[in-house]
């Protein structure tokens, strides 16, 4: 039995005074310790080794409610799988059996659960994993269709749980796996809805009105404002290939995923791993609750910016950096500043 030590959790509650209690525990402006909730882009399991016959994976998930750093001087109460946003990336192969064990932390204020889009069964596992604080729930499923799938909390109000950070990806590899690349990365986009304007110091509170009106304060990649920049930038060398597993937790907005200065060599459209790839693509549209896989080859050094090409969202946090190091390639690209394009974190 292969055990994936993953922690994440479970939720079930309608919108009520209890539903906002966790966010209202401290008013905006109050100092509070802030956890690092950012999941690094290289924090994902590697390709599965060849094996005869199906595997049995045990996935342990814990849901937590933690105050995390949203941007410098600004914090937010996230609801998470594994204390990180997004939750852990899970990797199995078609035909494998997956045993999901969910524990809702004792310190949670809310009920939580998990719905896997890769599951064929009622609620994607949500009904089987409804857990009050301190409770454990389990279910087992067989991965029957290859693809890259979203999972998320499906406790009412579902959009609230997703907006607070409860989403992740599960990769179901096809038989034989995927073609090898030099690097693999895990990136998810989401939205955060607050009562206070962007950049307000202190602990921000969620806004249900803004959520229902689909007016995000922040657009984030991997949980926080421009989280995948600076020390968290993705690292590649000239001549290397990279694969990005990209998903949108949402809960509301479609992403126009684009890497400035690069062209996707191959796109596994809509996360399908059995359809023919679409090649030489500039921008990929990914809906909330959807995913894609893109392959790139980096041939010129520099700082490449990952964006949602609805570009106003860059200033609200939806951007990351791929740092490419190595020798210049003047036959392919020359300019007054051939080294880097910079973006402030």
Helix content: under 10%
- Unreliable residue stretches: 1-30, 338-345
Q: What is the annotated CATH architecture of the largest domain?
A: Sandwich
**For the record, what is the CATH homologous superfamily label of the largest domain?**
Cupredoxins -  blue copper proteins
Which whole number gives the mean pLDDT? 90
The top-level CATH class of the largest domain is Mainly Beta
Structural shape = globular
**DSSP helix count?**
2
Number of domain modules? 2
SSE succession: EEEEEEEEHEEEHEEEEEEEEEE
**Beginning-to-end CA distance, first to last residue:** 42 Å
Helix/strand class: mainly beta
- What percent strand? 35-45%
What is Rg?
A: 20 Å
The major beta sheet can be summarized as:
6 strands, mixed
| Count of beta strands | 21
CATH topology of the largest domain: Immunoglobulin-like
Question: Your description of this structure?
Answer:
- With about 350 residues, this protein is mainly beta.
- It has two domains: about 1-175, Immunoglobulin-like; about 185-325, Immunoglobulin-like (Sandwich), CATH 2.60.40.
- It contains two helices and 21 strands.
- The chain has helices spanning about 160-165, 210; strands at about 1-5, 55-70, 75-80, 90-95, 95-105, 115, 135-140, 145-150, 165-175, 185-190, 200-205, 220, 235, 240-250, 255-260, 265-270, 280, 285, 290-295, 300-310, 320-325.
- Strands 1, 2, 3, 5, 7 and 11 form a six-stranded mixed sheet that branches. The protein has a six-stranded mixed sheet with strand order 12-10-14-19-16-17. Strands 13-21-20-15-18 form a five-stranded mixed sheet, with no helix packed on it.
